[in-house]
Amino acid sequence: MALNLDVLVRDNMLVGGATLHYQDENGDWQALEAELESGNNLEATFSVVVPANQVTGDSFTYKWEVSDYAGNTVESDEYVISLTDGITVGYFEDFENNPQGWTLIGSNNVWELGEPTSGPNEAVSGENVYATNLGGQYPSRMDGTLIMPGVQVPDEGAYLQFKSWHEFEQSSTGRAWDYGEVVVSTNMINWTTLAEFHGSATEWQDAEVDLSEYAGQTIYVGFYAYSDASVERLGWYIDDVAIADSSLNLENNPASKKFTKQDEAAEKEKEAKLEKELSKKTNAKSAKADVKSSVETSDNQTSGLPLEAIVSVLENGRSVSTNPQDGTYKMTLLSGAYTLVAETYGFRAEEQSVTVTESETATANFVLEELPKATVSGTVTSEQSGNPIVDATLLLVEDANVEPVKTDENGNFSITAYEGTYTLKVIAQDYKGQEMEVTFDENKTLDIALEPFFTVPGGEIGYDDGTAENARVFYDAGNGWAVKMSLPEGQEQAIVTDGVFQFHGTDWPSPGGTGFAVEVWSAGADGLPAEKLVGPIEAEAIRDLNEWTVVDLREHNIQVDGDFYMVYIQTSPNPNAPGLATDENGPNAGRSYQYVGGSWSLSPADEGNYMIRARVAYGVEKPEITSPADGTFTNEATVTVEGTASPTTTVSLLNNDTELGTAEIGEDGSFSFDIELEEGQNNLQAVTYVNGDQATASEVVTVTLDTIAPELNVLNVEDGQKTNRETLTVQGMVHDDNLSTVTVNGQAASVEDGEFSKRIMLDEGENTIEVVATDEAGNTTTQTFTVYAKFTAPEITNLTPTEDQHLHVGQSVQIEFDSEPGLKASFVVQMPLTNLNGVTSYNPIELPLVETTPGHYVGYWTVPSNVLAEGAVIEVKVRDSYGNETRQLADGRLFITEQGDGDNSQGNKGTDKEKGNNGKGKDKKDTNKGKGNN
User: Fold this and answer.
1) Which InterPro entries does the protein's record reference (predicted)?
2) Are 682 and 656 spatial neighbours (Cβ–Cβ below 8 Å)?
3) In terms of pTM, does the model score above 0.85?
4) Separation of alpha carbons 809 and 896, rounded Å
5) CATH assignment of 3-82, given 2.60.120.760, 2.60.40.10, 2.130.10.10, 1.10.10.350?
């Protein structure tokens, strides 16, 4: 049987070619030039078919020699593949197990194996089918063949039988713009169409193709699918493929032998369908053309490297790609005038006008001018320390063709791009990423400072039970599985540090493989993965159920805000891929998703939980001092400082910028320090360190140590003070830098500019006055006074003389009365106004009385010379130590005459009395009494 082999070639400038070297049956090396299958100037796939007569024995040994455009060559290792006989009558494949020997060829091959979620939505038998897209429509420009293992057709002939479901684009006139074919080849080079599928057959149908004309030969049967540049449909699905020795004799075989030939009108319909509304560009270059029915490059190429470019027709939107090996292209057009434009990355587009005439060929060559380039150079440093950041990655978001660059050991970088404005993205581990708009118009210097982003391990997120009951692998590479990850409650942002995957052992699949890729996607509003954040990242699987595969992702600085998806991508077809383990007996988390044919969907529940986990790190949280509170005052020098910080970090406690101690933060995220405060203000701050680098710091908490009591001076109260007032205003001076309150008998006093005042009520008798000054730290100064209050004036009794007294100059009168002991007693003699005319020199004065016995007061008044009076009044006054005062007039009045005048007889007592000061009765002998308080 013929053998088809492919090789992928990469070059940093321009891929050249590939040559297959193989050993023939004699062990001699032979060579075959490979043809370009697909790709571009930097990466291309080459394919070669080894003739069947050269593929003999039990094994086949080969190696590749590849070259670039300059002729540099590289030779691969030798490879050995086992050879088996082809299939024949009795073969049946339902795609439920690994279909051996099925291969894919073509420049845009989209055939894939799996469970259909579009088209028929189910297989005929089992679960799996082959389809051009398991979950949607095929793409534009589909061009690929699904090839069965080599078929040995018996001499009696054979029939290919299979189940078919198809939907291809077809015009109203019956023209098949897109279609499928069953093709056959004897050498894997030249293919013949045996049956064609077009239009729609939207139910599973039996299809049959007669292979009898190849009786006695070994052939290759393929399912070829093609689509044009526009309008997509659901495509082709096949199942239950068999090689039989007898026909099904189908009445309605969906496979037709040939397409219906189309006339010119149908061709014009196609041209109208493809035409786009493009504005015709002016100043197009005129190209002289040899008039034929096609446009192509000439053999006389303009000097320069050939380019992989797109040549398009502005009038109808049709386009073709050039051959990157030599830059040639060819397209067939209807007769007419057209404007062609050639464009490729990094070059200015160029237009030419061309006229195509029937049966003529127009030649249009393009020499494209490369766009100018500019280089931006600079350094990336830490915003905090100013130190250079090593291995920071810089990339241009809008241009994936520009390879990302990394900073060197000095933080230097240099990135070159075609002229234009781009978003420059800077990523560095343990730093916050930064994006900025940069215009590449000339060489320039740009220095970038990144803010540190310190993290601490946040644990592992997973939803499986840790034990695998099964494992799965896709038939085709490029598909994948994912698990939706949610951050724990209270966490809104994280850095994804690792992808964690569980793979089956080496016993399945066989031979299996270890290569796979990791991607991380964001979560969309519909619950499906929305945007690829990073990847694919190449990884190697550990095929051991006792050991998880951990892929380090820290260098990619993947920041997620909420839900995200950890994704496994299969990079090799079955059976050359590892088997991803599944947990089928644990609670189904409903978080496993499958990526098939470029589309995401929820994985079937019976597949369980795919054993994919993620490890994350959280940004270092700002430490917080929770006790003592900010603004605390204390008179205790020893205090316990408590707070919280991110686990696994180190916290240093500062007081007035002096370090007092450090603590390693455990899983509970708390710290505690017993410290000695300084007198006065203490500014406490907790600083978090990660691996010795300062990460963040708490707010400053101020604690004031005050061990000095307030200064207190009461100014208007003395101990033992007596008063006759019912209220007392306590006043004084107070001083303290941290004064809190001044209270008088527990009542707050008003304090202003160091002076305090408080009016209080007094009780009769003894009153204790306590003045307390308290500062914020609890220090107090207390002054206590005893104040006596008496609100009742003394009472005067037994006041004499009770009768009028007739006196001469030099004679005395005795005045006495009873009252409270200890009083200050005095009297005055008040002369009548009528007598004062002749006594101009007399001034009544207050004379004391003597307390002769407790409560009994006696005083004497001697009549001075030149004093005459008719009814002078004696008024006595007593005053206690509280300030209470009583006045009273004696009943007896004084009649003073010159010696010899009148007699010494006493008058009659008056009977009328009035109260008041200096009151007068109606009679000469009237007694008047009065009391008063001073």
Assistant:
1) CarboxyPept-like_regulatory, ConA-like_dom_sf, Ig-like_fold
2) yes
3) no
4) 7
5) 2.60.40.10
